[in-house]
Amino acid sequence: MSDKDTGSSFGIGFIVGAAIGLAIGFLYAPRPGEETRELLKEKAEEVKERAVEVAEKVKETAAEAREKAPEIVEKVKATAAEAREKAQEKLKKAKGQTK
Question: What is the rounded distance in angstroms from the CA atom of residue 62 to the CA atom of residue 32?
Protein backbone atom coordinates (compact mmCIF):
# COMPACT_ATOMS: atom_id res chain seq x y z
CA MET A 1 0.00 0.00 0.00
CA SER A 2 1.43 3.39 -0.91
CA ASP A 3 1.60 6.42 1.35
CA LYS A 4 -1.15 8.16 -0.60
CA ASP A 5 -3.46 5.21 -0.15
CA THR A 6 -2.79 5.25 3.56
CA GLY A 7 -3.61 8.94 3.77
CA SER A 8 -6.90 8.66 1.93
CA SER A 9 -7.83 5.53 3.87
CA PHE A 10 -7.07 7.36 7.10
CA GLY A 11 -9.22 10.30 6.00
CA ILE A 12 -12.17 8.10 5.14
CA GLY A 13 -11.77 6.13 8.37
CA PHE A 14 -11.59 9.35 10.36
CA ILE A 15 -14.80 10.66 8.81
CA VAL A 16 -16.64 7.38 9.40
CA GLY A 17 -15.36 7.22 12.98
CA ALA A 18 -16.41 10.81 13.62
CA ALA A 19 -19.88 10.09 12.26
CA ILE A 20 -20.27 7.05 14.49
CA GLY A 21 -19.03 9.01 17.49
CA LEU A 22 -21.47 11.84 16.82
CA ALA A 23 -24.34 9.42 16.41
CA ILE A 24 -23.57 7.72 19.72
CA GLY A 25 -23.18 11.09 21.41
CA PHE A 26 -26.54 12.29 20.14
CA LEU A 27 -28.26 9.09 21.20
CA TYR A 28 -27.04 9.55 24.77
CA ALA A 29 -27.64 13.32 24.87
CA PRO A 30 -30.54 14.51 27.04
CA ARG A 31 -32.76 15.83 24.24
CA PRO A 32 -36.24 14.96 23.03
CA GLY A 33 -36.38 12.20 20.40
CA GLU A 34 -37.56 14.44 17.57
CA GLU A 35 -34.76 16.95 18.18
CA THR A 36 -32.17 14.16 18.37
CA ARG A 37 -33.39 12.64 15.10
CA GLU A 38 -33.22 16.05 13.41
CA LEU A 39 -29.65 16.58 14.64
CA LEU A 40 -28.66 13.11 13.47
CA LYS A 41 -30.16 13.82 10.07
CA GLU A 42 -28.24 17.10 9.77
CA LYS A 43 -24.96 15.56 10.88
CA ALA A 44 -25.43 12.60 8.54
CA GLU A 45 -25.86 15.03 5.67
CA GLU A 46 -22.67 16.88 6.69
CA VAL A 47 -20.74 13.61 6.87
CA LYS A 48 -22.09 12.60 3.47
CA GLU A 49 -20.92 15.90 1.97
CA ARG A 50 -17.47 15.49 3.52
CA ALA A 51 -17.23 11.93 2.25
CA VAL A 52 -18.06 13.14 -1.27
CA GLU A 53 -15.36 15.82 -0.94
CA VAL A 54 -12.80 13.25 0.20
CA ALA A 55 -13.75 10.92 -2.66
CA GLU A 56 -13.32 13.76 -5.17
CA LYS A 57 -9.95 14.66 -3.68
CA VAL A 58 -8.84 11.01 -3.93
CA LYS A 59 -9.96 10.89 -7.57
CA GLU A 60 -8.05 14.10 -8.35
CA THR A 61 -4.92 12.83 -6.63
CA ALA A 62 -5.12 9.53 -8.51
CA ALA A 63 -5.57 11.36 -11.82
CA GLU A 64 -2.55 13.56 -11.09
CA ALA A 65 -0.49 10.52 -10.19
CA ARG A 66 -1.50 8.80 -13.46
CA GLU A 67 -0.46 11.88 -15.40
CA LYS A 68 2.91 12.17 -13.65
CA ALA A 69 3.75 8.45 -13.69
CA PRO A 70 5.26 8.31 -17.22
CA GLU A 71 7.47 11.32 -16.47
CA ILE A 72 8.68 9.77 -13.21
CA VAL A 73 9.39 6.46 -14.94
CA GLU A 74 11.49 8.23 -17.55
CA LYS A 75 13.46 10.07 -14.86
CA VAL A 76 14.11 6.81 -13.02
CA LYS A 77 15.24 5.14 -16.24
CA ALA A 78 17.58 8.02 -17.04
CA THR A 79 19.03 7.99 -13.52
CA ALA A 80 19.51 4.22 -13.65
CA ALA A 81 21.22 4.44 -17.05
CA GLU A 82 23.51 7.17 -15.76
CA ALA A 83 24.37 5.14 -12.65
CA ARG A 84 25.04 2.07 -14.79
CA GLU A 85 27.39 4.05 -17.04
CA LYS A 86 29.30 5.42 -14.05
CA ALA A 87 29.57 1.95 -12.55
CA GLN A 88 30.91 0.55 -15.85
CA GLU A 89 33.48 3.35 -16.05
CA LYS A 90 34.65 2.68 -12.50
CA LEU A 91 34.81 -1.03 -13.24
CA LYS A 92 36.96 -0.38 -16.32
CA LYS A 93 39.26 1.86 -14.28
CA ALA A 94 39.51 -0.75 -11.55
CA LYS A 95 40.36 -3.48 -14.08
CA GLY A 96 42.99 -1.22 -15.64
CA GLN A 97 44.62 -0.58 -12.27
CA THR A 98 44.81 -4.27 -11.37
CA LYS A 99 46.77 -5.19 -14.49
Answer: 45
pTM over 0.90: no
The span from the CA of 46 to the CA of 15, in Å, is: 10
Residue 57, C-beta contacts closer than 8 angstroms, at least 6 positions apart: 8
Radius of gyration of the chain (CA): 27
DSSP 3-state of 99: coil
Among residues 40, 18, 19, the alpha carbon closest in space to that of 29 is found at 40
- Residue 61: how many CA atoms within 13 Å on its side-chain side? 13
Give me the average pLDDT of each 10-residue run along the chain (99 residues): 60 80 74 77 86 87 88 92 92 78
| DSSP secondary structure string for all residues of 45-88 | HHHHHHHHHHHHHHHHHHHHHHHHHHHHHHHHHHHHHHHHHHHH
d(CA 69, CA 57): 18
